[in-house]
Amino acid sequence: MQSDQLNYIPILMQLILAVGFVVVTIVASGKLGPKRSSEAKDKNFECGIESVGNARIPFSVKYFLVAILFVLFDVEVIFLYPWAVNFKELGIEGMFKMIIFMMMLLVGFFYIIKKKALEWE
């Protein structure tokens, strides 16, 4: 084998180990342990509180909107860290690009505020 191909052996070994662990765990969980079932064991349990009613209660769309907005504005921070670390190397061009990026985020944030997406009824 060529040396380039030898570099992929650790990756292949890790892949085989990971897939093997998953397969062994799934097979072992089905084969080991007691198989006795009862009404008490099959009952839903959540933090020591008895389950009451149907679990499929509809959530407000506002909940999902706030969650997506949180992820969106949280991901922006991921782009700020590399910029801050490489601030001197990027120079004035990097500064102008970051200003444009932040302005676009501010436009989106003001749009969200205008649409009252963060207000709860």
List the SSEs and their pairings:
Blueprint: H1 3-6, H2 9-31, E1 45-46, E2 49-50, H3 61-85, H4 87-114
Antiparallel strand pairs: 1-2
Detailed description of the structure:
- With 121 residues, the protein is mainly alpha-helical.
- It has two domains: 1-31; 60-120, Methane Monooxygenase Hydroxylase, Chain G, domain 1 (Up-down Bundle), CATH 1.20.58.1610.
- Helix content is 66%, strand content 3%.
- The protein is built from four helices and two strands.
- The chain has helices spanning 3-6, 9-31, 61-85, 87-114; strands at residues 45-46, 49-50.
- It has a two-stranded antiparallel ribbon with strand order 1-2.
- Helix 3 packs antiparallel against helix 4 (87-114).
- The mean pLDDT is 84.
Query: What is the third-level CATH name, the topology of the largest domain?
Result: Methane Monooxygenase Hydroxylase, Chain G, domain 1
Shape: flat
**What do we call the CATH homologous superfamily of the largest domain?**
NADH:ubiquinone/plastoquinone oxidoreductase, chain 3
* β-sheet strand percentage: under 5%
Radius of gyration over all CA atoms, rounded: 26 Å
Structural category is mainly alpha
CATH class of the largest domain: Mainly Alpha
Strands, total number: 2
Low-confidence spans: none
Helical proportion, percent range: 55-70%
How confident is the prediction overall: mean pLDDT? 84
Q: In terms of quaternary structure, what is this?
A: single chain
Q: What is the helix tally?
A: 4
Distance between the termini: 67 Å
CATH architecture of the largest domain: Up-down Bundle
- Number of structural domains: 2
